[in-house]
């Protein structure tokens, strides 16, 4: 388990938004009280006052906002966040603004995630079932009240309708994910991440979850309240915004929209438990930790100085690659933030040396893949040890390519081939610079 003090954030939420300004404040405030301490918000071309709503949260360092125009940008946004910020945040959750993570105890979301993910070092993600809420019979949008107050009726907890030849699956079997982003290989579905070999996601009972859904639906420890429809007016407005630029000559949009609304407008069960949870969390709110340079340096020193001793045996480095890669990322942040403090560069190089020494220790395949996936950032660094890391990674990649070829895993084989070419190109560049 990586030291919590190495991260800028405990739990970050990644979301892509478009014209969600009326709902953002409630959603942000709720999750801040529930234990989220940072948000990566990707704005997909909003034309409302989204930026103005986000401004105070950006100034308070709770939100990093990015402009991502274009169509079908959700998966690119998610993967961008993983690639850029996986070493700055201990956990990442991937949500929409109509989704609220709801623990069923007074615990924070992070505390629940720790209890479940911390049970096995192979667990990289927590898959949380939906609970879909309906319109409460509301036709019009009453934006004078929040979503959580207005919509308190939902489908039965275990509601699920499987797919047919003409319809997609609907219901609470769907999950949303809280993950250790350092072990995410990529995301191709808003519900689920693909992890490096040997790592996997589990449900709240600790049972393995292999795709976008978890059945039977679990509700006892933590759920995601999904306010899918809201009022009929809000739902139809959302659908209309989502159709901009889409040719609808072949179907009647209103007929399609109402069919979706009617399917999901479930109001069978009264459930306002999230309101009591929010009140409890508001009353006991603990602000996120501040950026403390000295605390971060002290943590790095406590980990890296012992690892730099020449008499440390190889066994010391077993299971520590994630820690050393995280140290490298934090040291790089400190070096850039405080360029006149030479401790940043010193710790950065010390972390790279520790990463290199793990070649002599027993290392899991997931750790090797995590290192290879971090190569673009590492190879650009101006330290002599980087070339040693490159050579060691070339050896790992060559061996992996052989294993993948024998097992006919061609997609992964091509991916490793691309990394091998990257390593070889950096080696040729280094050799040319040395001769010059």
SSE arrangement:
Layout (H helix, E strand, L loop, with lengths): L8 E9 L3 H13 L4 E6 L6 H10 L3 E5 L6 H12 L3 E6 L4 E5 L5 H9 L5 E10 L14 H4 L2 E2 L5 E2 L8 E2 L3 E5 L4 E6 L2 E4 L4 E3 L5 E2 L12 E5 L5 H11 L10 H12 L4 E2 L2 H11 L9 H15 L13 H17 L5 H15 L7 H9 L1 H5 L5 H22 L3 H26 L1
Parallel strand pairs: 1-2, 1-4, 2-3, 6-13, 6-15
Antiparallel strand pairs: 4-10, 5-15, 6-10, 7-16, 8-9, 11-12, 13-14
Description:
The protein is α/β, with parallel strands linked by helices and 436 residues long. It has 15 helices and 16 strands. Strands 1, 2, 3, 4, 5, 6, 10, 13, 14 and 15 form a 10-stranded mixed β-sheet that branches. It has a two-stranded antiparallel ribbon with strand order 7-16. Strands 8-9 form a two-stranded antiparallel sheet. A hairpin with an 8-residue loop joins strand 8 and strand 9. Helix 10 runs antiparallel to helix 11. The longest helix has 26 residues. The radius of gyration is 24 Å and the shape is globular. The mean pLDDT is 93.
**What kind of sheet is the major sheet?**
10 strands, mixed
CATH class of the largest domain: Alpha Beta
- Could you say what the CATH topology of the largest domain is called? Spore Coat Polysaccharide Biosynthesis Protein SpsA, Chain A
Helix content class: 40-55%
Strand-residue proportion: 15-25%
Total beta strands: 16
Give a brief description.
This protein is of the alpha/beta class and 436 residues long.
Entry keywords:
single chain, ten-stranded mixed beta sheet, 436 residues, Spore Coat Polysaccharide Biosynthesis Protein SpsA, Chain A, alpha/beta
């Amino acid at each position: 388990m990586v030291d919590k003090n190495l991260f800028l954030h405990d739990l970050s939420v990644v979301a892509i938004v478009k014209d969600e300004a009326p709902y953002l404040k409630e959603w942000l405030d709720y999750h801040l009280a529930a234990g989220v301490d940072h948000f990566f918000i990707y704005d997909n071309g909003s034309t409302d006052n989204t930026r103005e709503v986000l401004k105070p949260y950006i100034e308070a360092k709770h939100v990093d906002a990015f402009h991502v125009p274009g169509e079908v940008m959700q998966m690119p946004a998610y993967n961008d966040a993983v690639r850029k910020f996986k070493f700055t945040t201990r956990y990442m959750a991937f949500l929409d603004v109509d989704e609220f993570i709801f623990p069923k105890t007074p615990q924070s979301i992070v505390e629940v995630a720790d209890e479940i993910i911390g049970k096995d070092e192979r667990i990289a993600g927590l898959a949380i079932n939906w609970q879909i809420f309906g319109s409460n019979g509301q036709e019009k949008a009453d934006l004078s009240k929040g979503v959580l107050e207005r919509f308190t009726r939902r489908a039965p907890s275990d509601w699920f309708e499987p797919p047919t030849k003409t319809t997609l699956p609907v219901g609470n079997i769907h999950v949303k994910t809280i993950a250790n982003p350092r072990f995410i290989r990529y995301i191709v579905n808003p519900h689920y991440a693909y992890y490096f070999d040997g790592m996997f996601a589990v449900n709240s009972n600790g049972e393995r979850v292999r795709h976008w859904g978890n059945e039977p639906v679990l509700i006892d420890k933590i759920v995601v309240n999904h306010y899918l429809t809201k009022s009929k007016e809000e739902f139809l407005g959302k659908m209309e915004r989502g159709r901009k630029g889409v040719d609808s000559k072949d179907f009647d949009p209103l007929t399609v929209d109402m069919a979706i609304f009617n399917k999901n407008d479930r109001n069978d069960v009264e459930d306002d438990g999230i309101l009591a949870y929010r009140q409890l969390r508001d009353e006991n709110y603990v602000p996120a930790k501040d950026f403390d340079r000295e605390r971060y340096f002290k943590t790095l020193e406590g980990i890296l100085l012992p690892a730099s001793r020449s008499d440390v045996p190889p066994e010391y480095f077993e299971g520590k690659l994630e820690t050393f890669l995280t140290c490298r990322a934090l040291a790089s942040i400190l070096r850039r933030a405080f360029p006149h403090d030479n401790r940043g560069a010193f710790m950065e190089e010390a972390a790279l040396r520790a990463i290199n020494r793990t070649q002599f220790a027993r290392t899991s395949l997931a750790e090797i893949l995590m290192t290879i996936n971090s190569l673009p950032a590492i190879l650009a660094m101006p330290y002599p040890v980087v070339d040693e890391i490159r050579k060691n990674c070339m050896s790992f990649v060559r061996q992996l390519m052989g294993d993948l070829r024998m097992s006919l895993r061609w997609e992964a084989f091509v991916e490793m081939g691309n990394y091998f070419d990257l390593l070889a190109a950096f080696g040729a560049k280094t050799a040319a610079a040395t001769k010059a």
